């Protein structure tokens, strides 16, 4: 017969058991072998099974929540005409972009009626760059076609015979010649000198109280033009 003492079980008497005896004693040996070396196998009480927690739906990790600003927060200023139709977010973004990069020019001191687009561009830029100028003539009757056709400006110089006045007239001539391509400059006349993109010649040209500027015109405006500095 096989006796068990923990895992150190030894047979008391060595003999060949029958197959039937070994089969009958195998469960007892397994039970005895599973016991502790120092005592009987502890009885383990089954843990109570908690009731299954209710299923909770979790939002997807990529969901986005849009929270409206509180009523106390200031509303963004509209950059469009208040009289126009309601501005959409896209129009606000576009207006903001234009506001940041805009170099648009308002009308200057020259009356623009009858002027062609390049003449208007030159007049507005002269007004913006030289705020001392408070009078620029445009369309008027003349024996030559430049003024009647909206191709010429008369930039009147304050105190034209003074040192400051002469210097101001020289600066305006230099400015328009630096922008020949932008303004479509054909010529300028100041203090008896006729200036062109190809050079200057003096003698008998008059214009001692204003700088005469002629452009190549570019056609008459249709009202949708935007002029840039």
* Tally of separate helices: 5
Outline type: globular
The biggest sheet, with number of strands, parallel, antiparallel or mixed sense and barrel status, is: 6 strands, antiparallel
Strand order across the largest sheet: 1-2-6-3-4-5
Q: Could you describe the 3D structure shown?
A:
- 27% of the residues lie in helices and 12% in strands.
- Among the domains are: 34 residues, no CATH class; 99 residues.
- A six-stranded antiparallel β-sheet has the order 1-2-6-3-4-5.
- The longest helix is centred in the last third of the chain and has 16 residues.
- The N terminus is likely disordered.
- Strand 4 and strand 5 form a beta hairpin.
- The protein contains five helices and six strands; from the N terminus they run αααββααββββ.
- With 229 residues, the chain is α+β, with helices and mostly antiparallel strands.
Short description:
This protein has about 230 residues and is of the alpha+beta class. It is built from 5 helices and 6 strands.
How do the helices and strands line up, and which of them pair or pack?
Elements: H1 19-33, H2 89-101, H3 117-129, E1 136-137, E2 152-156, H4 163-178, H5 180-183, E3 185-190, E4 193-196, E5 199-202, E6 210-215
Antiparallel strand pairs: 1-2, 2-6, 3-4, 3-6, 4-5
């Amino acid at each position: 017969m096989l006796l068990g003492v923990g895992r150190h079980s030894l047979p008391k008497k060595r003999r060949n058991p029958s197959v039937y005896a070994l089969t009958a004693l195998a469960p007892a040996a397994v039970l005895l072998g599973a016991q502790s070396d120092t005592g009987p196998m502890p009885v383990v009480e089954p843990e109570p099974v908690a009731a299954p927690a209710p299923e909770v739906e979790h939002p997807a990790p990529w969901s986005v929540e849009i929270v409206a600003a509180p009523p106390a927060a200031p509303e963004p200023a509209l950059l469009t005409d208040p009289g126009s139709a309601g501005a959409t977010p896209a129009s606000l973004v576009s207006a903001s972009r234009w506001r940041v990069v805009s170099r648009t020019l308002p009308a200057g001191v020259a009356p623009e009626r009858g002027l062609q687009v390049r003449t208007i561009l030159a007049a507005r830029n002269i007004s913006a760059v030289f705020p001392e100028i408070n009078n620029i003539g445009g369309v008027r009757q003349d024996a030559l076609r430049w003024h009647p056709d909206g191709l010429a400006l008369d930039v009147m110089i304050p105190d034209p015979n003074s040192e400051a006045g002469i210097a101001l007239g020289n600066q305006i001539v230099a400015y328009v010649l630096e922008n020949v391509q932008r303004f479509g400059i054909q010529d300028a006349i100041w203090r008896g000198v006729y200036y062109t993109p190809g050079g200057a010649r003096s003698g008998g040209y008059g214009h001692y109280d204003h700088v005469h500027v002629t452009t190549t015109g570019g056609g008459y405006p249709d009202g949708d033009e935007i002029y840039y500095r």
